[in-house]
Amino acid sequence: MTAARALARWAHDHRADPDDRALADRALADTVAVALAARDHPLHPIAAPLPDAARWAAMAHVLDFDDLHIGTTTHISVVTVPAVLAAGGDARAYLAGAGVLARLGAMLGWGHYAAGWHATCTAGAPAAAVAAGVALGLDPDRLATAMALAVPAAGGVQEAFGTHSKSLQVGFAADAGVRAARLARAGATADPRALDAWLERVGGAPTTDFPAAPAVPGGLAIKMYPCCYAMQRPIAALREVRDRVHGDLTGVTVTTPAGTVHPLIHDRPTTGLEGKFSMPYAVATALLDDYPGFDSFTDEAVGRPAAQKLMAQVTVDRRPGETTTLLDGEVALRLDLTDGTAVHAELALPPGSPQCPPTTGELREKFAACGPGVPDLLAGLTWERAADLMRTAFPAATDSPVQES
Question: Where is the MmgE/PrpD C-terminal domain (predicted)?
């Protein structure tokens, strides 16, 4: 028994319970909402010639507002939802792919992410193959074959963070999964042991012993701000005390376990995309903006003199120690004022985390922020109608420089 065969059997046999179905419904609505919010993003025309799954995944991820699986540091839904929609699937296919991504991510472990891999893409390509494969009605043997066929695309690096490449490589993973599933259905052969071998070569530990339920162990975190999840906690902490900050600051110290800020690779961002991966900018937007929303993560917002001044005053104290997730420990902030006083803030769990799930009202507010009419479009959303919405919002295009020789 290989990991691929064990995962394929789990995905084929899994039957959803009410909690699984609720998670799938929320994941579908959240993924479609954040994709619709990106309709006017500059990446839209660039991604237009890509296949459906790649195009839809890239647009759903470019604002970095999609959900996250804390235990594996992977954006599960942004890979699996587009793969399912492109293959004509439903909640069962989503839960199969999402469950495989969570279990693959667990086999890869924190060390894989800490080494610089973009785990959403590395675990995402084989998982997308399962999501699309279940949608296409593949049996366990062909699901295992599809995962093996997706292994060549199981890549992605964190150096992409802060550029279009981050969302595009997520799109490549989703598309690779759909392609692999279709090839397996057509009769292509592959050795399922390829998945186990790949896992070992990228620092994972293959196993056939993983939780049978729930579909996604630990649940999914819903983002309240459109930026890297490593910024959600400090932003939320500062928003709780910003009304106590009177006068000018002389400095801001952020103390946090080192691993929890691993993705924040831009200390002095100059663009909106870089600002989504910056602890100093997390401090700046939390203090300057009433709500750190889409307008806070533009090139103009990051370039504000007030933001640049604040970022220069931020010191990040990265505490050493073993890290397993982005929510290990807590974040503590000290804001030193010119009058000699200081304001302190601490937070362990940000709003939207699995332990602090968003309320119905908070979700509706998030969906409303994604564009006029979006909450109404999402009401009673089905997988078939979601596919129609994505086709309408992000239609395929053939007239593009990408296709020129």
Answer: 225-374
CATH assignment of 229-347? 3.30.1330.120
Helix, strand or coil, per DSSP, at residue 158: helix
Instruction: Please state, in angstroms and rounded to a whole number, the distance separating the CA atoms of residues 293 and 264.
Output: 18
pTM score, two decimals?
0.94
Contact 84, 90 (CB under 8 A): yes
Main-chain phi, psi angles of 343, to 5 degrees: -110, 130
Q: Which CATH number fits domain 3-224+357-403: 3.30.460.80, 1.25.40.10, 1.10.1200.10, 1.10.4100.10?
A: 1.10.4100.10
> CA-CA distance, 130 to 143, in Å (whole number)?
6
Task: Tell me whether residue 265 is exposed, middle or buried, using C-beta atoms within 10 angstroms of its C-beta: 0 to 12, 13 to 18, 19 or more.
Answer: middle
Task: Decide if 145 contacts 188 (C-beta within 8 A).
Answer: yes
Phi-psi region of 223 (alpha: psi -120 to 50; beta: other; left: phi over 0): beta
Residue-wise pLDDT tens digits, 335-372:
999 999 999 999 999 999 999 999 999 999 999 999 99
Antiparallel, parallel or unpaired: β 342-347 and 249-257: unpaired
119 touches 112 (CB < 8 A) = yes
For 278, the token pair is 């910056």
CA distance 268 to 263: 14
At 303-317, the pLDDT tens digits run: 999 999 999 999 999
What integer pLDDT is reported at residue 247 of this predicted model? 84
Rounded to an integer, what distance in angstroms lies between the CA atom of residue 207 and that of residue 199? 10
Q: What percent of the chain has pLDDT over 70?
A: 98
DSSP letter for each residue of 345-385:
EEESS-TTSTTSPPPHHHHHHHHHHT-TTHHHHHTT--HHH
